[in-house]
Amino acid sequence: MIPELSNPSVCxxxxxxxxxxxxxxxxxxxxxxxxxxxxxxxxxRFAYNGKRCPTCHNILDNSNLISNDCKIELKExxxxxxxxxxxxxSIEEKLPLMVExxxxxxxxxxxxxxxxxxxxxxxxxxxAMLREGYxxxxxxxxxxxxxLLIFSAGIGDILEEVIRQAGVFHPNVKVFSNYMDFDESGExxxxxxxxxxxxxxxxxxxxxxxxxQELRTRPNVLLxxxxxxxxxxxxxxxxxxxxxxxxxxxxxVEERKQSYLDSYDIVLLKDETLEVPNAIMLYxxxxx
Length: 288
Ligand code: C5P
Ligand code: MG
Known about the structure:
The protein is α/β, with parallel strands linked by helices. The protein has twelve helices and eleven strands. The strands form three sheets. A seven-stranded mixed β-sheet has the order 1-11-10-9-2-5-6, with helices on both faces. A hairpin with a 5-residue loop joins strand 7 and strand 8.
């Protein structure tokens, strides 16, 4: 049906079920579809030429807006990443540690009095990279008036700048993320609203009922993520009919493969491209 589903990076627990979901979504029509995607390591690349690509947080951490002393403290927080991807610990066990990670990082960033007017330059100078095929994904969704919700535990101001500079921040894109709060002189003084971390996207979704209410005529969801925490991003969708979950498995592939296969319909192993999501999107829109 979709040749890209035979790519070597693709793994599916139940290919028959994937076909059924896709057929049901095609039958309902692309005007009933919405896309919900994570940002870091899902829309952006995990690695390029063997080198890790930055998350929204890393873009700031590595920038010249941060003092050398603070950089050292932020580097120390990198010890939380192995916990994030540790498949031997339960979500319950990891959750408080993830809250600790985000909280400490945001406190450090606030101390740096980061200036709003310098964010565009920081993103420009960073190694941030959207996955290959991003332009087709964003442009095609826009051309077909399919809403794209980017739901990120990263930093909203940074991710918006990444997609703006890439020329794909179209009007059909909506972002739920952690936004910076600047004072009247344009210096960072806090983060706005409830913290979104890797394991509370469900709560974040339920806080934004208005968005999902507006999209109630679109009960068919294409979900893209790279973490098991991303699976709850669609929990606010009204009267869901079908959901197809595509998961990028970037790191610790062998250890985590089974848990990803158990929860994502399609798992993409070390695949740095959007080839498979794009093929599915084209299929859903009748390839035009
Ligand atoms: O956009 P997404 O929801 O994927 O953003 C979360 C990612 O940000 C996590 O996967 C985590 O590895 C990363 N992160 C980071 N530095 C922090 C907190 C989170 O790089 N201080
Ligand atoms: Mg992610």
